[in-house]
Amino acid sequence: MLGFGPKLPLSRDAEHGIYTLTTSYSEQIQQNFKNLLLTAPGERIMNPDFGVGLRHFLFEQKTTAIPSIRQRIKEQVRKYLPFIEITSITFDRDQEESFSRDSLMLSLSVAYTVPSINLNSSIILSSDGINKL
Fold first, then answer.
1. Which of 8, 25, 39, 48 has the smallest number of Cβ neighbours within 10 A?
2. DSSP structural state of residue 40
3. What is the span of the domain harbouring residue 24?
């Protein structure tokens, strides 16, 4: 088997055919999880509930956005990626309260495991990176 699916963003690759492919379970799971986090509800055709929609929270107050983001991530993973177990959801304010209180930036780190393939990994996103995607 050459790969599991096209690697995003799409890029040409002569080795795998037309497009570069993900070549491991961990890489495919990471890509699917990131897609779930960044897709806005209503953006996916025929599946209007799919996605956490992190971009919707870019201009919200941190004190109200953080609990909503945490809840939305847990709900979406439970529904669309049930093989993933979230071990922690950390925001930059959890690391350094004094810095984040005055900061306009918010970073998110989601640590997770996939017991069936013995995978421990994490996804780290920041508000400037979310806005550019």
1. 48
2. P
3. 5-132
